[in-house]
Amino acid sequence: MSPVFGLFPGPQMTPLQNSTLANAAKVLVDTQMSSSSRSTKLISHLRHQPKLPSDNLWNTDKGPGIAMQIDGNFDFVSGIAEMLLQSHKVVHILPALPAAVTEGSVSGLVARGGFVVDITWSGNALTKTTITSKIGVMLTIRL
Fold first, then answer.
1. Residues 39, 57: Cα–Cα separation, whole Å
2. Suppose 12 and one of 6, 43, 110, 122 were both cysteines; which one would form an S-S bond, judging by CB atoms 3.0 to 4.6 Å apart?
3. Minimum mean pLDDT among 48-52, 88-92, 135-139: which range?
4. Helix 19-32 × helix 39-46 angle, to 10°
5. What average pLDDT score do residues 53-59 get?
6. 23 by DSSP, 3-state: which?
7. From edge to edge, which strands make up the β-sheet containing 115-122?
8. If we measure between CA atoms, which residue out of 128, 136, 140 comes closest to residue 88?
């Protein structure tokens, strides 16, 4: 088991909930980014929000001879979703939007607690969001 399981896929090490653990995990993840499977590390890195670990997320391959792992394909999608929406006790919209992605939209992301979220942004800023509760409960959000 990864020592940063609480960062990803677990929710215990988010910067908003426990900055000490999150900072310690960031140091570990930054150190590990240059070796082994990068998919889980990429997602863990995204939880820290300041910037991407690579200029080109589509090409984090280290070249010939390195085995492609299917978890990387699945985790890549999770990583993109984490950049746009995080839901660890509070729903955080666009927590790690890369500066290079100045405009866009996503629909149908699901936040913990039964919420479906649609997001639109322009100029690296949120322009519209729609949140629908599937079970009729209250929600705390962070923009």
1. 10
2. 6
3. 48-52
4. 140
5. 50
6. helix
7. 104-111, 115-122, 125-133
8. 140
Is the pTM higher than 0.85? The answer reads no
Question: Who contacts 45 (Cβ-Cβ below 8 Å, separation ≥6)?
Answer: 26, 29, 30, 33, 52, 53
Instruction: Kindly indicate the confidence band of residue 20, based on its pLDDT and cuts at 50, 70 and 90.
Output: confident
pLDDT beyond 60 at 55: no
Choose among 102, 107, 96, 91: nearest CA to 49.
96
CB 45 within 8 A of CB 82: no
Alpha-carbon separation of residue 69 from 31, 34, 91 (angstroms): 21, 16, 30
Cβ-based burial of 29 (10 A; exposed 0-12, middle 13-18, buried ≥19) = buried
Between the CA of residue 29 and those of 53, 76, 121, what are the distances in Å?
Answer: 10, 16, 29
Q: How far apart are CA 17 and CA 140, in angstroms?
A: 14
The C-alpha atoms of residue 23 and residue 19 are separated, in whole angstroms, by 6
User: What is the token pair recorded at 25?
Assistant: 């995990």
The length of the chain is 143
